[in-house]
Design brief:
This protein is mostly helical. Helices cover about 75% and strands about 0% of the residues. Keywords: Membrane, Transmembrane, Transmembrane helix, Transport. One of its GO terms (molecular function) is transmembrane transporter activity.
């Protein structure tokens, strides 16, 4: 394993070096949180694909293939469909708003009174997403180094917190590009063909496995439908995803770069299912389907290649973990802490601070949230239920107000707040009644949220025309606080310039 250890060590050292280099470019709030809004198609596509394809899309996707065959691809396919829908229909408008968080978008659309409650929901979601990703380090480092769980979490989480704190989104972008390349080589170009060949080829797969392993809907229509509600719609509204959209330098980059990333997700989904199907032929009696990835890597890959593929799994976890961490810190600072401080001052604006102070404040919040994530990850053995609650509250409470704000001008702040409350209370009550992992809460929660939004919006006065006028100006790319025209990708930054649990099964991105 010495060669494999060397590969992993070089990879981890490279992540820290990227963080240090990114620190030189993080000179303003825009640099630190959204990479100066100037990523071109290449960087944007790679980093977007990296964040949405986390450890569960890799390890869990292979596990679903082991358990269900080719239909096990559906979880990651719905992630890809969500990213495609976001990129083609909404990303250009989102990018033109020039905001930092989803809650800022809601304040802009509805008149400044929806941000705190939505910020709390979004913070809970991003926190649990980061915790889940961090816990995954224990599994990966156990395979790599046979180290205790706590040490594995501190090691993996500490590296992510370090490079994220140093350079913010610039560091995360650079590391995500490396992670994207490592995942592509390790999973698509090495593990996929080796697994199929070791299993005897596609003919052997068909001969050895039941026909249900090759049925497109073998995993079940209800499961697929729930995947769509949770992951496809979740891609449309998550802060971790929107924050990447904010990094695009123009509408075209956001639209077509995201489309490339979404298409990549579809390929990745099928690859994971095929690898899992091959593992079923070679190791038909594994105790857990989630062991399929580690088993095939450990026993079937040659020295060096094994280290690279394990680095690919580590890359998948790190990309989601870092994206969730900066999203969590951004929401905590901008949507919660800043609003509470403003309320304490009686609504008076905060004293003006320089770009360095803004970067320092956001860097401090990443460090605090990162430490909290590591502590929670150590304390919890399994956060599937907690993450399920966060996903249900996110989609059940926020999907309708966000999409309604983008698509329906008659929507009002009263309708939005009622929708958040009714949707959140409905999913909470039904999770208590049916069980946290049941599918019904999200079904009925969305319906209740939609009904509340429409009815209350129609019964209350329309949004102030001045608010809507400002909203339309920002959607058109005019009146934004930052210039829409940024330097080309690769230009030197100057001062002022830049995915887990499914409720029914316990898998997540």
């Amino acid at each position: 394993m010495a060669v494999d250890y060397a590969v992993i060590f070089l990879y981890l050292a490279g992540m820290l070096a990227m963080g240090w280099w990114g620190m030189r470019r993080a000179r303003s709030k825009s640099d630190f949180l959204v990479a100066g809004r100037r990523l071109g198609p290449f960087l944007y596509s790679g980093t977007m694909a990296a964040i949405v394809l986390g450890g569960a899309s890799t390890i869990g996707g292979v596990g679903l293939g082991y358990k269900h065959g080719l239909s096990g691809a559906w979880m990651v396919l719905t992630i890809g469909f969500g990213l495609l829908a976001l990129s083609l229909f909404f990303s250009a408008r989102i990018s033109r708003l020039k905001v930092y968080t989803v809650s800022e978008m809601l304040d802009l659309r509805y008149g400044g009174r929806a941000g705190l409650i939505t910020g709390l929901v979004m913070w809970a979601y991003t926190l649990m997403l980061a915790v889940t990703s961090t816990i995954a380090y224990a599994t990966i480092f156990d395979v790599l180094l046979d180290v205790p769980r706590t040490l594995a979490i501190v090691l993996g989480g500490g590296i992510v917190v370090a490079y994220s704190t140093l350079g913010g989104m610039w560091s995360i972008t650079l590391t995500d590009m490396v992670q994207f390349v490592v995942k592509t080589i390790g999973v698509l170009l090495l593990l996929l063909p080796i697994a199929v060949v070791k299993a005897g080829g596609f003919g052997a797969l068909r001969d050895e496995l039941p026909t249900s392993y090759f049925e497109p809907l073998g995993i079940g229509g209800e499961t697929i439908f729930t995947y769509v509600l949770i992951y496809t719609f979740g891609m449309l509204i998550g802060q971790d995803i929107w924050q990447r959209v904010f990094t695009a330098r123009d509408d075209r980059t956001a639209r077509w770069g995201g489309t490339v990333a979404g298409t990549y997700c579809l390929v990745y989904a099928i690859a994971g299912a095929v690898i899992g199907t091959a593992a079923k032929v070679m190791y038909p009696n594994l105790a857990s389907a989630d062991d399929a990835f580690a088993t095939i890597v450990t026993h079937e890959l040659p020295v060096g290649v094994r280290g690279l593929v394990l680095a690919a799994a580590l890359a998948a976890v790190m990309s989601t973990s870092s994206g969730a961490l900066i999203a969590c810190a951004t929401v905590a600072n901008n949507d919660i802490w800043s609003r509470l401080r403003a309320a304490a001052r009686g609504g008076e604006p905060a004293p003006a601070g320089g770009a360095h102070d803004e970067v320092r404040g956001n860097r401090l919040f990443i460090l605090i949230m990162g430490a909290a994530v590591i502590v929670i990850a150590i304390a919890l053995n399994d956060v599937v239920q907690a993450l399920t609650v966060a996903y249900n509250l996110l989609v059940g409470g926020l999907l309708i107000p966000i999409l309604g704000g983008l698509l329906w001008k008659r929507g009002t702040v009263q309708g939005a707040l009622t929708s958040v409350a009714v949707g959140g209370l409905t999913v909470s009550a039904l999770m208590w009644h049916y069980g946290i992992l049941a599918d019904q809460p999200i079904y009925y929660g969305l319906l209740a949220s939609l009904a509340a939004y429409v009815v209350v919006s129609l019964l209350t006065p329309p949004t102030d025309p001045a608010v809507l006028a400002t909203w339309r100006e920002r959607l058109a790319g005019r009146g934004a606080p930052e210039s829409a025209h940024a330097p080309a990708e690769g230009a030197e930054a100057g001062p002022g310039a830049y995915a887990e649990a499914h409720p029914g099964t316990g898998e997540g991105r």
